Amino acid sequence: MQAILPFETPNRLGPVRERLLAAFGPQRADARPDPVTQLIRGCLAVRSGDEATRVALARLRAAFPDWAALAEAPAEAVEPLIAGVADADRKARQLPLLMRTIMRQRGPIYLDFLGYLPVDRAMDWLTALPGVGPAIAAAVLNVSTLSRPALVVDGAVLRIAKRLGLVGRTATSVQAYETLMDMAPKRWIAADFFEVHALLRRLAHTRCSPAEPACGRCPLAGICRQVDVEGAQVVAWRKAG
Ligand code: SF4
After folding, report:
1. Residues near 215 by Cβ (< 8 Å), separated by ≥ 6?
2. Closest residue (by CA) to atom 2 of ligand 1?
3. Which atom of ligand 1 sits closest to the CA of residue 213?
């Protein structure tokens, strides 16, 4: 049965956030890294767990206290430091290239200028960097000390947005970012975007898993179209009961 969506308004993300807030409580950033560090963290985190990313970033920081030194590092020196993350060999080539690209375009490795650009232009600048997609770019803007209003649409958020019916089932991360940003209440500030992303990730880890979404225990069940989850949902309901 198709869910009746009570949020057929431009501000569709508002009701999603309210329901998740009631279930999981407020979410706030503990500490905000500088934008360059967040860029590196975002690249390391692609297809990698939080702990592996944290360890890899700490090792990189210890080896390269100045990110400019990372620009000159050979991939063979970087790869052992980040061996715990996915695609470490590719990322070991990507990270020095990223630093060199920033130096070529900006001089010092310093991204605070992004805080003075309109968010759309800052996103365009970041996504033109090698290997940087909209999720990494939005995290640089939103999670770092820049604290700009941009939604991080990572794999978990994209999956839930498709299941909810907020974006089409074939939407790319770029399309989903643009659609979801349009659905955010205009009054939202950076902390609101941070919070809704953190809430959606919490939902992804506790209810809306890729294989077996626990729709019977989901705070969004009443407003979710449950796109492409019919088979898995039967299992989830049986477990929940
Ligand atoms: S767990 Fe089920 S109801 Fe909740 S968001 Fe995922 S698909 Fe929708």
Report:
1. 207, 221, 224, 226, 229, 233, 236, 237
2. 215
3. 1
- H-state helical runs in 33-133: 35-45, 50-63, 67-71, 75-78, 88-106, 119-127
Q: Which residues line ligand 1 (CB under 6 A)?
A: 160, 163-164, 207-208, 213-215, 218, 220-221, 224, 226, 229
The fold adopted by the segment(s) 13-27+152-240 is: Endonuclease Iii, domain 2 (1.10.1670)
Is the distance from CB of 24 to CB of 192 less than 8 angstroms? no
CATH code that applies to domain 35-143: 1.10.340.30
In this prediction, residue 228 has a pLDDT band, given cuts at 50, 70 and 90, of confident
What is the tens place of the pLDDT at every residue in 113-158?
Answer: 999 999 999 999 999 999 999 999 999 999 999 999 999 999 999 9
Measured between alpha carbons, how far is 74 from 171 in angstroms, rounded to an integer?
37
Q: How far is CA 81 from the centre of its chain?
A: 23
